[in-house]
UniProtKB/TrEMBL annotation:
UniProt xrefs under InterPro entries: DUF1272 (IPR010696)
Name of the protein in question: DUF1272 domain-containing protein
Length: 81
């Protein structure tokens, strides 16, 4: 089950479970579309893989399987720009 992390690991933008611009890699690293495309240039700094749009979990499923509240920030994301 996806964690649905609450923020972009680069710019710390809030990414609620229904955010249409949330992107993930195969390890669920979470980024906003702007950072994924323009800062990270399509390559996850953690796994070196690409990104895919994060699925939106239906509201009814969120009741049983809530999104994560743990914020994660990459230490050197801004240095990649």
């Amino acid at each position: 089950m996806l964690e649905l992390r609450p923020n972009c690991e680069c710019c710390d933008k809030d990414l609620p479970p229904d955010a249409p611009d949330a992107m993930i890699c195969t390890f669920e690293c979470t980024w906003c579309r702007d950072c994924a495309e323009n800062v990270l240039l399509g390559v996850c700094p953690n796994c070196q893989g690409g990104f895919a749009p994060r699925p939106i979990r239906p509201a009814a499923a969120l009741e049983r399987h809530p999104a994560s509240t743990v914020r994660v920030l990459a230490q050197d994301c801004g240095a990649r720009a």
